Amino acid sequence: MNILVIEDEKNVASFIKKGLEENGMIVTLAYDGETGLSLLQEQEYNVIVLDVILPQVNGWEVCNRIRKQLRLKTPVLMLTALSSTDNLVKGFEQGADDYLAKPFKFQELLVRVKALDRRNRNQVATQSVLRFDDIEMNMEQKMVTRAGKEIKLTSREYNLLEFFMKNPNKVISRMEILENVWGVNFDLGTNVVDVYVNYLRNKLEKNFEKKVIQTVVGMGYILRAN
Amino acid sequence: MNILVIEDEKNVASFIKKGLEENGMIVTLAYDGETGLSLLQEQEYNVIVLDVILPQVNGWEVCNRIRKQLRLKTPVLMLTALSSTDNLVKGFEQGADDYLAKPFKFQELLVRVKALDRRNRNQVATQSVLRFDDIEMNMEQKMVTRAGKEIKLTSREYNLLEFFMKNPNKVISRMEILENVWGVNFDLGTNVVDVYVNYLRNKLEKNFEKKVIQTVVGMGYILRAN
DNA sequence: AGTCTTTTTCACGATTCTGAACGAAATTTA
DNA sequence: TAAATTTCGTTCAGAATCGTGAAAAAGACT
Fold first, then answer.
1. Which residue of A38, A50, A164, B44 could cross-link A223, Cys pair, CB 3.0 to 4.6 Å?
2. Residues of A whose CB is below 8 A from B107
3. Domains of chain A, each with CATH number or no CATH
4. What string of H, E and C letters represents the secondary structure of chain B?
């Protein structure tokens, strides 16, 4: 289970990290909201622990942006020093899923994190996002980004990339591609695959440093980071 | 707001009752699970405060029966002396919505009760109202507004929009739409879907800045803000 | 009958797909 | 090493498909 903790007080942060790690969780720390948000773009987390009081952008704002901007449904547990009703209600309005008033016992935190994860698992079976290196493919929105930049693909190009991303670091033959992307299972003497790989490369690798689709002469292609 | 408190320790019970009443709530006490369950059959409550340790039937069992037997979705706040993880996870499994470890400050209880009520109200509300960006769909009144302005739709148009709003930010294929809105599950070579999307666009996007229904060539359509 | 809603059809333009052609690169053969 | 062969990358133009809007036809309801 991956947890992102956004908390500026370093001793509190490392206290939480240590405790959660002792319970078998993988914990990433962010000491401010912006860092947290960019981490969320890079990787998927199961639960976010978010302090309300943060430098610059406060926790509510961060929470709001997680929902509205990043469109993530990852459950958020808010940590708050102020346990007044109004403040908390505000938290829920911004899309927090639970809150915990400081100071708290670690057991409390642990239980809540587990409960949030549990609740979430039941609701959303899978977040349909494929990732490879800095390429991200949202299978619901059929949207692809590389290093955060949107890359518009036609449907055939998209399907081809999806096949690559479902078989990363693995040489794929032209036949396999034809079968799985074009639905053809006989060799029509065509080079469509070559052409489309070329299209993909143009869209996916131009303006970027690293090449990701490499050809393996006589065998096919492979999606590999450098 | 009606609260049912199921708690056998009379001094704790009356302490809670008094406090909640001071905050304008109507509180009913039950000193054991059976009494609580029968009260729930007679009247509707907004929130249930339930002690885990009760004579005869324990709190988890009561919670379980509230969900499985009475089929009530009334939010349950569990009071527990044991804040160990396992016990609490068990509580959530039985359908509790939140918990509070004894001893607690009254403020904590109050906040949680309010939060539960609030969450519940929102859920019930959103059961009949769908929102996306500035579009609001009242499913009881079958009425749609955008930016507060009413938009009159025919029933087919309404059903189509409803399907979109239930699958926001997700590419929907023509087939899916045909199946779910027209109830056809074979490909009659028609472009009704295209036509109706077009109707929706006319009614929903003319006179407004932002387009919300976008076509994804070769794949279908997507309801997406901007 | 008359209005409103729904379905179907059509045509144009835009996008996407595909095969062919050819040079470049890699591999094999001589 | 050089030549021959195979494989690959790229470009391009025609073909096929798809999206859109309008308009006509069919159906439902009053």
1. A164
2. 83-84
3. 2-125 (3.40.50.2300), 155-223 (1.10.10.10)
4. CEEEEECCCHHHHHHHHHHHHHCCCEEEEECCHHHHHHHHHHCCCCEEEEECCCCCCCHHHHHHHHHHCCCCCCCEEEEECCCCHHHHHHHHHCCCCEEEECCCCHHHHHHHHHHHHHHHHHHHHHHHEEEECCEEEECCCCEEEECCEEECCCHHHHHHHHHHHHCCCCEECHHHHHHHHHCCCCCCCCCHHHHHHHHHHHHHHCCCCCCCEEEECCCEEEECCC
Name the pTM for this structure.
0.56
The answer to whether B91 and B63 have CB atoms below 8 angstroms apart is yes
Of A83, A108, A118, the CB nearest to B107: A83
Measured CA B70 to C1' C5 distance, in angstroms = 44
Neighbours of B134 (CB within 10 A): 14
* Backbone dihedral region for residue B169 (phi beyond 0: left; psi -120 to 50: alpha; all else: beta): left
Residue of A nearest to B85 (CA): A111
Nearest residue on chain A to B108, judged by CA atoms? A83
Q: Which is nearest to A165 in space by CA: A132, A189, A139, A192? A: A132
- Asked whether strand D has any atom less than 7 Å from the CB of A211, the reply is no
Whether B89 and A111 lie within 8 Å, measured CB to CB:
yes
